[in-house]
Amino acid sequence: xxxxxxxxxxxxxxxxxKKLGQNFLVHRHTAKRIVDYAELSKQDTVxxxxxxxxxxxxxxAEAAGQVIGLEADxxxxxxxxxxxxxxxxxxxxxxxxxxxxxxVLKANYEELVQRCHGKKLxxxxxxxxxxxxxxxxQLIEHHEQIDFAVVMLQxxxxxxxLAQPGTKEYGVPTVLLRTVATVKMLMSVGPEEFHPRPKxxxxxxxxxxxxxxxxAVGAFDHNLLKIVVNSTFGQRRKTLLNGLASSGLLSKDVxxxxxxxxELLPSVRAEQLALEEFIxxxxxxxxxxxx
Length: 291
What we know:
By secondary structure, the chain is α/β, with parallel strands linked by helices. The protein folds into 2 domains: 2-211, Rossmann fold (3-Layer(aba) Sandwich); 216-290, Helicase, Ruva Protein, domain 3, CATH 1.10.8.100. It is 40% helix and 18% strand. The strands form 2 sheets. The protein has a 7-stranded mixed β-sheet with strand order 4-3-2-5-6-9-7, sandwiched between helices. Strands 1-8 form a two-stranded antiparallel sheet. The N and C termini lie far apart (64 Å).
């Protein structure tokens, strides 16, 4: 498949775009495993981000009722359109695949839900490395419209999302994603699985969206939590109090009192706090702001 992919791109006058961060998945067995992890049925409409050469698209079309593929590269769209069209084009994409020339970072999620017959999105993505972080924050923002996402990204990014408090990998996306979803590591993928070969390893994760139960943690202000998390992780070497003071939410003396009321120490650092502790601190700050 590696040589076939190179040949196909050359014949079409195309090349992997560094600007778009393209590393095309070329091994069919890996693509099939990723699709199997999505556990799709013929009643499902699935959204694929980054169609590439169709390595994931074809097994997705076999597993799901419909595939809607978002692709930012007009050359890739043209390649597939020229190959589509019945039995005389055996390498074309199946008829239940609809391609959209669109950058996912500019996508309207309400429109995507409508295309998926009003159902929550089931997302499969071999993400360009360059958009991994903004895409993850986009998923957090639109979590209410998403069922799950099976995503391939840099292995180090996957490890950050699975990190525990007290580690250097633990950070803003780790905490914020856990407020709306659970993350599971599915498999590692080596550089030899792609064309061109990246210099780093990749990983496939499943992100299942289900907001935290308010019975377990109590109600909290999600927007305020984002401010708390971003301000305290923004300067990791600072103490919790000094990081929080940079947010401008309240005076430093009041924030010190908030931290103590949340049963935390002003001298700890953000990376030492579990999600539940961030939530408890946010709840206390909310009370003080409302007084």
